[in-house]
Amino acid sequence: xxxxxxxxxxxxxxxxxxxxxxxxxxxxxxxxxxxxxxxxxxxxxxxxxxxxxxxxxxxxxxxxx
Length: 65
Prior knowledge:
By secondary structure, the chain is mainly alpha-helical. The protein has 3 helices and no strands.
């Protein structure tokens, strides 16, 4: 979950939408993307976790070309 300054606006309404173009919103998206990227790096570089995830993907057929 990411969050940014939106005053008293309620999510998913026109007032809230305006806050999505602020520096606070841009920073939140960058922080969220960076957190997801570091999570992926952590999983990919941990042999046990990588093996577990690849096994699950293979079981689901997600690795079929």
